């Protein structure tokens, strides 16, 4: 299987200043940096976990930043160092509203991590039953043709700076 993962960060960097802005909830400052072209929404902001802004918005429960990144067209299938997409991450930690928004944006809830676990499997593993129920319903809607998914392997979607988004085969 091939995935796109955030990679190629200099080894001497542990975390970028942007990560502190996410942690502190300084969404307006992050927006300024993005609009000025000083940071790219799909580039990693952590050299260990390879999290993008979207991953960190989910982990740190920053709804405003999450919604902004979705509106700006962030890559919803970029993977961190563990092979987690934003949907896998949100399902694992029980961010039900974020899970719903990602699925509504066209992320297929049946995709897997490198070990074959779907977002529903991850949610079930961590007892996130509200998320499990939603993902079961979403899978049913896809099977019935009531919910459409987006082909995130389209090269036009793998973009932004291109500096740090790399194809990775598991």
TrEMBL record:
ANK repeats lie at residues 49-81, 82-114. Pfam families: Ank_2. The lineage of its organism: Eukaryota, Sar, Alveolata, Ciliophora, Intramacronucleata. It comes from Halteria grandinella. It comes from the Eukaryota. Keywords: ANK repeat, Repeat. InterPro entries: Ank_Repeat/CDKN_Inhibitor, Ankyrin_rpt, Ankyrin_rpt-contain_sf. This is Ankyrin repeat domain-containing protein. PANTHER family: ANK_REP_REGION DOMAIN-CONTAINING PROTEIN.
């Amino acid at each position: 299987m091939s995935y796109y993962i955030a990679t190629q960060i200099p080894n001497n960097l542990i975390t970028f200043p942007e990560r502190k802005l996410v942690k502190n909830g300084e969404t307006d400052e992050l927006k300024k940096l993005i609009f000025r072209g000083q940071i790219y929404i799909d580039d990693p902001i952590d050299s260990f976990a390879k999290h993008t802004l979207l991953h960190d918005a989910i982990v740190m429960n920053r709804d405003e930043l999450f919604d902004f990144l979705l509106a700006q067209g962030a890559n919803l299938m970029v993977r961190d160092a563990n092979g987690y997409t934003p949907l896998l991450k949100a399902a694992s930690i029980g961010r039900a509203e974020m899970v719903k928004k990602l699925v509504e944006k066209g992320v297929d809830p049946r995709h897997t991590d490198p070990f074959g676990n779907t977002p529903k499997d991850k949610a079930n593993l961590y007892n996130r039953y509200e998320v499990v129920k939603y993902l079961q319903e979403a899978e049913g809607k896809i099977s019935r043709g009531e919910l459409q998914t987006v082909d995130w392997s389209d090269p036009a979607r793998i973009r932004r700076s291109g500096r740090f988004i790399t194809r990775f085969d598991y």
